[in-house]
Amino acid sequence: MRLIKFLCGPFFIFAGVMHFVRPGFYLQIMPPWLPAHEAMNYASGAAEVVGGAALMCPDPKVRRAGGWFTLLTLLAVYPANIHMALNPEDYPNVPGGQAGLIARLPFQAVFVAWVWGAMNRGRTSSDS
């Protein structure tokens, strides 16, 4: 379980870098009501990189701050996931089709739990 917590940071760094390496994928799945698609793509990618890097930091205060930052990032992109699940016809290139888009919704809870575990690794109940 400890290894899984350590992989959280690199996972989010990789996911964030992909926003810069393959921006077309992210741009095509952005809801039309969001403004500034390109800027939002790069901002969310940068947020994932920064949060992931902070989750890898040995300093627990930095790790927790990075965890909260990553949790807020997940919360910020969740409305787009809902939009995609409700409008699957607009996203034919997303793997898994409508079932995949719907499955993404509860799967975000897995990411939240993973980040929570990573940001709190090494903490005891007596830590403040």
Automatic annotation (TrEMBL):
<feature type="transmembrane region" description="Helical">
    <location>
        <begin position="68"/>
        <end position="86"/>
    </location>
</feature>
<keyword id="KW-0472">Membrane</keyword>
<feature type="transmembrane region" description="Helical">
    <location>
        <begin position="98"/>
        <end position="119"/>
    </location>
</feature>
<keyword id="KW-0812">Transmembrane</keyword>
<protein>
    <submittedName>
        <fullName>Unannotated protein</fullName>
    </submittedName>
</protein>
<feature type="transmembrane region" description="Helical">
    <location>
        <begin position="39"/>
        <end position="56"/>
    </location>
</feature>
<keyword id="KW-1133">Transmembrane helix</keyword>
